From TrEMBL:
Its EC number is 2.7.2.11. Its main location: cytoplasm. This is Glutamate 5-kinase. The lineage of its organism: Bacteria, Thermotogati, Thermotogota, Thermotogae, Petrotogales. It comes from Petrotoga mobilis (strain DSM 10674 / SJ95). InterPro entries: AceGlu_kinase-like_sf, Asp/Glu/Uridylate_kinase, G5K_ProB, Glu/AcGlu_kinase, Glu_5kinase, Glu_5kinase/COase_Synthase, PUA, PUA-like_sf. GO terms for cellular component: cytosol. Residues 280-375 form the PUA domain.
Length: 388
């Protein structure tokens, strides 16, 4: 972990800035005050990932219940996002801070060019002393391109920008062993284990979306990216500034801090692992599995079968016959081409398509092996819904 913290991503959950009546300016102002202090007194770069569009739109449109259908949610988000950003703008303007609205979809992370564009734009905003305020572009997202939750989005943004700290503000003291007992708070987590995942009961609060389980998914991403993640109770006065001071002094006594791995994954491998949606699955034999674990590329000879419909450059999952997930990577062949060469030796493939086929089906630089990092989801033999 870095000694000094320069760049902080702060994720604000719906419950931290809104209530039944929409945006709660008092709650939002508490956050604005602390961000101002971090920026001016402690000289930090701050990026906010803020939820609250649906909660704001819901009250504007007079919904008495949590919107249910996708189109209801999208309508609320379309109305509410404007309200949300204008409230932030007004409160930050009083502090002489400019804000920018950034709306992202999963596509912006999976398309390498757009991913790098988002990186450049956000850096340019930081250089201009602007606070970017990011949210998912709910109005246009369908299941296909949905990131799903702002906890995961905040970890993606922190990873993209190589932040030094990710803070998730919520309506709980942190990760609790027993949800009803604030004294059961866990202060430090070194690794997100299945036992820990069992503590997340799957429910979210009245306004929230992802609950604790999506915060644990975010922890896996930030963990692999070498970034500490701290969950804090937004309702406590001055909690963000206090926590940042403490973390800089390696004190982890406020909220729950997930410590990062010493050895972080490379940016490209993080992009492969966390930003792309698998389009297929390759089943490999034991010899191939051994080779992959030793850091070699995947060759056609070790592939037993495949599923899915993918093109060159798409992400596929690599599993063994038992359905165990070995890793994931970018393929050099389409599924149609690959069907013709699986099980074949390299010299047989080189005659394929007039010698144009590359030797590797997945080059090791484009391959992330499960054993090399932790916190991967186990294979469930259905690649389509297996994504972080
Ligand atoms: N083990 C746990 N410890 C703390 N909170 C938990 C746990 N399991 C589930 N939760 C739920 O997670 C909720 C916070 O997530 P969420 O509702 O998505 O809020 P936010 O809008 O802040 O993201 C809490 O209100 C709580 O009900
Ligand atoms: N994009 C949605 C928020 C989705 C979300 O993750 O909400 P939350 O669990 O409150 O952080 C919105 O602005 O309402």
């Amino acid at each position: 972990m870095k000694d000094r913290i320069y760049k902080i991503v702060i994720k604000v959950g719906s419950s931290s800035i809104a209530d039944e009546n929409g945006i709660n300016v008092g709650k939002m102002n508490k956050i604005v005050e602390q961000v101002t202090e971090l920026k001016f007194k402690r000289k930090k770069d701050i990026i906010i990932v803020s939820s609250g569009a649906i909660a704001a739109g819901k009250s504007e449109l007079g919904y008495r219940y949590k919107p249910y259908s996708v189109s209801e949610k999208q309508a609320c988000a379309a109305v509410g996002q404007g309200v949300l950003i204008s409230k932030y703008r007004d409160l930050f303007a009083v502090k002489n801070i400019k804000v920018a609205q950034i709306l992202l979809t999963a596509d912006d992370f999976s398309n390498r060019q757009r991913y790098l564009n988002a990186y450049n734009t956000m850096n340019a905003l930081l250089e201009n002393d602007v606070v970017p305020i990011v949210n998912e572009n709910d109005t246009v997202t369908t299941d296909e391109i949905k990131l799903g939750d702002n906890d995961v989005l905040s970890a993606q943004v922190a990873s993209l920008l190589e932040a030094d700290l990710l803070i998730i503000l919520s309506d709980i003291p942190g990760l609790l062993k027993n949800l009803g007992n604030p004294k059961s708070l866990i202060n430090i987590v070194e690794e997100v284990t299945p036992e820990l995942e069992n503590l997340a009961n799957g429910k979210s609060g009245k306004l929230g979306t992802g609950g604790m389980s999506s915060k644990l998914k975010a922890a896996k991403i930030s963990n692999a990216s070498g970034i500490p993640l701290t969950i804090l109770p937004s309702y406590e006065e001055g909690i963000i500034t206090k926590a940042v001071d403490n973390i800089e002094n390696t004190k982890f006594n406020i909220g729950t801090t997930f410590l990062p791995k010493d050895k972080k994954m490379s940016k490209r491998k993080r992009w492969i692992q966390f930003s792309l949606k698998p389009k297929g699955e390759l089943i490999v034999d034991n010899g191939a599995r051994e080779a992959l674990l030793k850091g070699k590329s995947l060759l056609a000879v070790g592939i037993v079968s495949l599923t899915g419909n993918f093109s060159i450059g798409d992400l596929v999952i690599v599993s063994n016959k038992k359905g165990e997930n070995i890793g994931r990577g970018l393929v050099n062949y389409s599924s149609k081409e690959l069907k013709e060469i699986i099980g074949k030796k390299t010299n047989e493939i080189l005659t394929f398509k007039d010698n144009v086929g590359p030797e590797e089906v997945i080059h090791r630089d484009n391959l992330v092996i499960m054993e090399a990092t932790e916190g991967f989801e186990p294979s469930n033999n259905g690649f389509a819904d297996r994504r972080l």
